[in-house]
Specification:
single chain
Length: about 200
């Protein structure tokens, strides 16, 4: 789940701040932070009294608390799409936390992922320096459902599973690259490996 919490959701928050800044400057970002500070205290909900000043310091638990409120924080702040991306995120995130998946669940999950990703790219496309060649985004959109079919629910993964997958799909291809245009080289290496295994 760190793939989502500390990865894609972090991007979504950062891109939201950039989108708001681009639209109306610092005042809209400040308004978002102000709305976060207005959220009343509630049991099991962490309050961010300073807003989202430095998201680099946030933990997974912090991100999960932010997920619960961001739909309301960004509502009518800029446009309907901004609220909608957080709604789609929450729908997708809830589906990802299931313990068991039937084939119909996986189909619904893939549809939710694709709807979120399409809006994510539409809304934040101008802010990606890599033209959204983000390995976490790619693996989430194109491989997570197949990974669930093979390894079952993503909540059930152990640390060893993540480490083995990371080593196979990131570390080894990275070491084989010449360290220029790394993401593109990693993707080519992975595709070559996949094609090789398919032929076997």
């Amino acid at each position: 789940m760190h793939h989502l919490d500390l990865g894609l959701y972090c991007y979504q928050i950062e891109f939201t701040k950039k989108l708001l800044f681009e639209a109306e400057g610092k005042s809209l970002v400040d308004k978002m932070n102000w709305r976060i500070t207005l959220i009343p205290r509630h049991l099991k909900l962490k309050i961010f009294s300073e807003g989202l000043q430095s998201i680099a310091l946030l933990t997974v638990d912090n991100y999960r608390n932010i997920m619960k409120v961001m739909v309301f924080v960004v509502d009518d702040l800029l446009n309907k799409d901004l609220s909608e991306i957080y709604v789609k995120w929450n729908e997708m995130y809830l589906l990802s936390r299931q313990e068991m998946f039937k084939e119909s669940d996986l189909k619904n999950f893939q549809e939710a992922i694709e709807k979120w990703a399409k809006l994510f790219i539409k809304l934040f496309g101008q802010f990606s320096n890599s033209d959204f060649k983000l390995s976490k985004l790619h693996s989430w959109v194109h491989h997570i459902v197949d990974t669930i079919r093979e390894f079952r629910a993503i909540n059930g993964y152990t640390t060893e599973t993540y480490e083995a997958l990371h080593k196979t799909y990131v570390k080894i291809p990275y070491c084989l690259s010449n360290k220029k245009d790394v993401e593109e080289q990693i993707m080519k290496t992975i595709n070559i490996n996949i094609n090789y295994h398919v032929k076997l």
